[in-house]
Amino acid sequence: MGTTEHTKRLLDLIEKSTSAYHTAEAARELLVEAGFTELFMKDSWTLERGGKYVVKQYGSGLFAFTVGRQAEASDGFRIGAAHGDFPGLHIKPNPEIFADGYVKLDVEGYGSVNLMSWLDRPLSVAGKVALRSENPFEPDVRLVDLKKPVLIIPNVAVHLDREMNKGMELTKQLHMQPIMGLAEKKEDIKDALKGMIAEELGVSAGDILDYELNIYNPEAGMVIGSGEEFLSAPRLDNLTSVEALVSGIEDSVRDRGINVIAVFDHEEIGSRTKQGAASTLLGILLEKIYGSLGFSDMEYKSALMNTLLMSVDVSHALHPAHESKYDPMNKNILNKGFSIKQACSQSYATDSEAIAVVQQICDKEGIAYQKFVNHSDQVGGSTLGNIASAMIPVRTVDMGVPLLAMHSSRELIGVKDQKSLADFLKAYYTI
What we know:
This protein is of the alpha/beta class. The protein folds into 2 domains: 3-86 and 235-430, Zn peptidases (Aminopeptidase); 88-216, Aminopeptidase i, Domain 2. It contains 10 helices and 20 strands. It has helices spanning 3-16, 20-33, 172-175, 192-201, 236-249, 281-292, 297-304, 352-365, 385-391, 415-430; strands at residues 37-39, 52-57, 61-67, 77-83, 88-99, 102-110, 124-131, 140-145, 179-182, 208-216, 222-224, 230-233, 258-264, 308-312, 315-316, 338-341, 369-372, 395-400, 402-403, 411-414. Strands 1-2-3-13-4-14-18-16-17 form a 9-stranded mixed β-sheet, sandwiched between helices. Strands 8-7-10-5-6-9 form a 6-stranded antiparallel β-sheet, sandwiched between helices. It has a 3-stranded antiparallel β-sheet with strand order 11-12-20. α1 packs across α5, α1 (3-16) crosses α10 and α2 packs parallel to α5. The protein is globular and about 70 Å long. The chain starts with a helix and ends with a helix. Its cofactor is Zn(2+). One of its GO terms (molecular function) is aminopeptidase activity. Keywords: Aminopeptidase, Hydrolase, Metal-binding, Metalloprotease, Protease, Zinc.
């Protein structure tokens, strides 16, 4: 698969992945199309060697795995993990606010958001809705995506804030409430959002019991640059990694060993949820795989010592206007290869033996890579690698494509870097 194909596939995934729930569903659909059999965590499994399987759990967690044709208990796992959520704004219950004829929505921040980047953009709504059902223990759960711009958060005019270009403080409660429309009086706006959601789903607004809805940027991604070397799009953090993992595992049945991908939710808020990397969900999945193949608990625990985990999440690319923010020796340039992220604090999982494995695969396959370390006086972000590897103690490497404008409503990568990451993961799962 060439650079153009990977870029198109990533753009298709971005268009579909408008919430963490839509990310998991889009990845599931791609894998089912590639011949993966769907399983459910609540069921008992009978697995076949040479089989390909996909599991979605809690709506926004997704796992897929392939079983070696001659898999033995001592082979262990090759795991790749990413997250399918993204920073932004989520809609609170009872959200409609009447303000001098404007209808606004009450929202809260999700993750570490670049608030300014959400101003003056067309915005839409997507997520999960729970509907009234016959059995109260089994609500009717639907995904919804309005797909059209229905919201906007306008900036203040520079005439009214002459100092705004010197730095403007935004608060989520006061400044980030999006405008949805106009109304004559407060009584007219009750359940206005539910009405839109109900119309999209073809149900009654009264049947909507609860929802988990986020605001997203519906603008299309596009290839830009004089040589078409960049990709500008929303949600590149972390759909770049999801695309690369799905591409890597699709045709990855080996003779020996088990390949696994995990797409977690809630990385942007710390991963400590039932479908986050800090849960025991991945460990339960691995145990079920080994038990279904007839291996013992002792053999499973031994196999973990012969297991690798690639934690796949974006890295910081060098910004030409802010070079002082970066380490002078370990700065990453767009289109020079994917990043191997390191930190002695273990905010990025650092294991020289595991990193050496990655480098040797890249050298063997001619895949470009770079090493990234934060500026010593800058506190960089963290990711799920050290969290997941504490839950299942295996050798781990943090990696991902270098990215500019991280956590903005629109971000920027180099198209060659996406291909280098996907090429590495394919080699990782097939060599």
